Amino acid sequence: MTMTKPTDPPVTVDEGRPEPKARVRLRLPRPVRPPWPALAGLAAAVALGGSQGASVPRAGLDGSWITAINIAALDNWRFGEDVLFTYGPWGFVERPLIVDAPQYTLGLLFVAAATAAMYVAGYICLRRTWRPAVAAPVAFALTLCTPSSDPGLRLLCASLVFAALAIERQAALATRSAGWRDAWPTAALAGFAALMTQVKFSEGVAILALAGIVAITVRSWRALAWQAGAGVGAFLVVLLLGWLAAGQPLGNLGPWLRDSWRVASGYQEAMTREQPDNVLGYVLAAVLALVAIVVGVRAARHRGVAAAGSMLFVVALLEFGFKHGFTRHDVGHEATFFVITGFLLLALASHARRPVAVLVTGALAFALVPRDIQQFDPLAARDRWRTSVEALLNDEYRADLLASAKRGTRAQYQLPESMVAATVGHPVSVDPWEATLPWTYSMDWRPVPVFQAYSAYTPELDELNARAIVAAPADQIVLREDREAFDGRNARWETPRYLLALACNYTPGTSAGRWSTLHHGADRCAAPSTVETREVAAGEVVSTPTVGEGEILVARFTPEPDGLLMALGNAVLKDWTPLLATTEQGRFRVPEALATGPLMVSFPTELGWAAPFDGFHYKRLGFNRPGTLEFQVVRVSQP
Q1: Among 595, 531, 533, 534, CA closest to 559
Q2: What percent of the chain has pLDDT over 70?
Q3: pLDDT confidence bin for 312, thresholds 50/70/90
Q4: Most buried by CB count within 10 Å: which residue of 5, 431, 491, 605?
């Protein structure tokens, strides 16, 4: 049986009628809705926390170094040669004063940008778990928990989140060898680190460490080479451009980096301090660190090579936060640890089994940061912005604020007019730290590089100051204030090499109240001669040698090195056993690096110095650690 295939019926075409056109449906793209909650939170964060107000020079320890870094940039001082501090040539942007309108403008922009960056970083972390209507106000509140006076901390937190996202990206890359396009996060972090290094050295180094951690979370040696090359190249290019843009000589860059590292590394031992009620801070820090490590371990799972980088990221940030928060352990400093750990938890929350619980823990960390309600006060924020803009645009208003600031600092310093008149036409430095005084009285300020005595933490920095004061102009004047050292230190032992150089090369001038002057002269000291060397036990107090007229007795103490475990604990965390010296006048804290002195034990009355160098002799001396104690005599000839 034959089957036939059915055929379609014939189609007739009406040639007189046109074919119907096919209907084309035009689909318009859906309108993109702006993220209004996120934008509103960003605007509110910048409005309430993006301005420090119209800041003016102030007296005091902190007020003086803030004045110094602003004046140094304004007068084009050479960093590493003329001035050396924890802040670099761009440090004024973190603490801008209205002494110069262009500098103040850069500072305003920097503080506002840091606020915006911290908000965006927090919002990105929170948005992974919560909807925008919740993430935006929480990110706003967390941003305002950090003070506007510390924009560097805000930028460090933003860099932390960026690094965490970059590590996730590295872990998700295919096994192929990555090229330069995949190395841009490392290059961006390294370039930003180069800029921040010249703002505040320690924060720049921390961000550079983050860049290094991101660079190693790769899957091949070729990718690692690309990451390392991009990071090193970006760091060097931005470092050089930033240095030259600040008007700094290229030859000073190396010495500045070297000595800034000495300042940063010497800070830990020299500035260790404990507050009386310190237990709760350590307990809370330990709990938060444990939560961060547990979440970090979970985040590192199934990442292969990137797992090591993820855990190193967590541990490095906890260690950095601990050093910054607990080296000088008080309520204000320990807040740094809580802020950094809080942001670390926010960045890791999406990897936790219960992300909401981790986010809440991170928010609780921010609740431990001491802030007052004024930071959230819109009226106070309005006044800060009003004074900022007015000081920027109104020259007369800015001049009135500066004149009022000078009247205020003069009332605090109470420097006699006769002493002010004696400094006219002469370069002046001020000991031990009042760097605002020369600005107050319009003096020609020519300080030693480490211009606040307590910051010369190492023998190299102390020697740098000693050489500078000897090489100062022949008409150099040193203004000295009689005041107690802070942290229980001894004002007669602050920067010992520098003080001996003053005693040998400067002669006393006038004195009034708590102020006195010293004038540059010729070197009058003979070479030190050792009169006694002995081994002393911990806590042993010995009698000091007697000296004759016109002789300075100095001590050099070399403590026995710590054991391996103690040295490791001090290096990783903090110095738990600060060096203490005992005399008949009490116990004093001595930075261990400066214990080799020469610590002045006896100072002759015949030299005519004002207090606290108006003739003294410690008859007994001991230390809380065992070591070698050497006494030397320095003979000073009469002028």
Answers
A1: 595
A2: 92
A3: confident
A4: 431
Short-list 261, 258, 240, CA closest to 249: 240
Q: What is the mean pLDDT of residues 384-405?
A: 95
Kindly provide the residue ranges of all beta strands, DSSP E only, lying in 201-284, ordered along the sequence. 273-274
Contact between 511 and 615 under an 8 Å Cβ cutoff? The reply is no
Least confident of 108-112, 169-173, 351-355, 614-618: 169-173
Q: What is the CA radius of gyration of the chain?
A: 31
Strands (E), 474-619: 477-481, 506-512, 515-520, 529-536, 541-543, 551-559, 580-583, 586-589, 599-603, 616-617
Q: How far is CA 304 from CA 223, 260, 350, 608, in A?
A: 15, 37, 19, 71
Angle (nearest 5°) at CA 213 between 207 and 215: 105
C-alpha span between 180 and 218 (Å, rounded): 13
Amino acid, single-letter form, for residue 89: P
428 φ, ψ (degrees, to nearest 5): -130, 140
Section 209-214 average pLDDT:
93
Q: Which amino acid is at 574?
A: K
One-letter amino acid for residue 418 of the chain: S
Q: How many Å apart are CA 44 and CA 35, to the nearest integer? A: 14
Instruction: Answer yes or no: pTM beyond 0.85.
Output: yes
Please list, in sequence order, all residues whose beta carbon lies within 8 angstroms of the beta carbon of residue 75, skipping any fewer than 6 positions away: none
> Strands 273-274, 328-329: parallel, antiparallel or unpaired by DSSP?
parallel
CB neighbour list of residue 33: distance below 8 Å, 6 or more residues apart: none
162 touches 211 (CB < 8 A): no
Phi, psi of 347 (to 5 degrees): -70, -30
Which amino acid is present at 378? P
Q: Residue 478 contacts by C-beta under 8 Å, 6 or more apart in sequence?
A: 428, 429, 430, 431, 469, 502, 506, 517, 518, 519
How many CB atoms neighbour CB 18 within 10 A?
7
DSSP 45-78: HHHHHS---S-----SHHHHHHHHHHHHHHTT--
Q: How confident is the model at residue 35 (pLDDT cuts 50, 70, 90)?
A: confident
CA 619 to chain centre: 40
Which 3 state secondary structure label does DSSP give 251?
Answer: helix
**Cα separation, 101 vs 328, whole angstroms:** 34
Whether the CB-CB separation of 97 and 392 falls below 8 Å is answered with: no
**DSSP bridge pairs for 428:** 445, 477
Encode pLDDT of 253-267 as tens digits.
Answer: 999 999 999 999 888
Give the Cα separation of 445 and 438 in Å (integer): 6
CA 255 vs CA 81, 84, 110, 243, 249: distances in Å: 8, 10, 27, 13, 11
Q: Write the single-letter amino acid at 11.
A: V
Token digits for 416?
Answer: 């006699």
Q: pLDDT tens digits for 61-117?
A: 999 999 999 999 999 999 999 999 999 999 999 999 999 999 999 999 999 999 999
- Comparing CA positions, the residue from 475, 507, 480, 506 lying closest to residue 491 is 480
